[in-house]
Amino acid sequence: MSSAASLVFEAATLDATLALAGALGAALETGDLVLLAGDLGAGKTTFVQGLARGMGIASAVKSPTYTLVHEYRASTPGHPGLGHVDLYRLPQGRDTGDLGLDDLLTRSAVAIEWGEPRFAAEPDALLVSLAVLPDEGATDRRRLAFAAKGPRGTSLLAAVAAAARNRAGAR
Q1: Could you give the C-alpha distances from 71 to 20, 112, 116, in angstroms and in order?
Q2: Cβ count near 89 (within 10 Å)
Q3: Alpha-carbon distance 161 to 163, whole Å?
Q4: Which CATH number belongs to the domain containing residue 77 in this structure?
Q5: Contact 19, 46 (CB under 8 A)
Q6: Does the pLDDT at position 171 exceed 60?
Q7: Which position has the higher pLDDT, 128 or 102?
Q8: What is the rounded CA–CA span in Å between residue 141 and residue 47?
Q9: Which one of 5, 69, 80, 166 is at 20 to 30 Å from 159 when CA atoms are compared?
Q10: In total, how many domains does the chain have?
Q11: What is the pLDDT of residue 3?
Q12: What is the pLDDT of residues 31-58, one digit of tens each?
């Protein structure tokens, strides 16, 4: 996905990853699209758990690897729900039209694991790439790379950047 703007962060702890995701979640609106990339175990589902927390969603977020799509309703009226999609088991080249993603985007923000390259042509999205960083046996350190595409993706990227600055200033 080509991008107009990007940021890279290192999260030393699981809490730091969840905090960045939560800041993004707090900024999400109905129709927003977040594409998640990374190897198995990189923390994509954990990131979506942080999104849900930031959105005020109380439900336990689980990987939709076998069901492909989970939808979570916001606990607070007026806040968007969250669609969580995992395309790992969907063969490359298979049409995703029958998953109801267009309908899901009309009532929720949507986070799609393994969404690249299927959704690379989307005009407005935020791509989040996660990678585990080696740390002498620790597995919580992550590299989070955010790339914005389109005006809404750029606004979401700005919300993540502001949250990171606030978090750094609070220390």
Answers
A1: 21, 12, 20
A2: 11
A3: 5
A4: 3.40.50.300
A5: no
A6: no
A7: 128
A8: 13
A9: 69
A10: 1
A11: 42
A12: 999 999 999 989 999 999 999 999 999 8
- Cα angle 163, 109, 86 (rounded to 5 degrees) comes to 105
The structure's pTM equals 0.89
According to the model, what pLDDT value does residue 50 have? 95
Measured CA angle at 29 (ends 106, 126), to 5 deg: 100
Give me the residues paired with residue 6 across strands: 147
Residue of 23, 46, 9, 54 whose CA lies nearest to 156: 23
Rounded Cα distance between 50 and 44, Å, is 10
Helix, strand, or coil (residue 34): strand
> Measured between alpha carbons, how far is 24 from 5 in angstroms, rounded to an integer?
16
Determine the Cα–Cα distance for residues 46 and 52; give it in Å rounded to an integer.
10
Task: For the chain, give the percent of residues with pLDDT over 90.
Answer: 56
Distance CA 131, CA 39 (A): 7
109 contacts: CB under 8 Å, gap ≥ 6: 28, 29, 30, 31, 32, 33, 34, 51, 55, 80, 81, 82, 83
For residue 162, give the H/E element and its range: helix 150-169
Domain residues for the domain of 48 are: 5-169
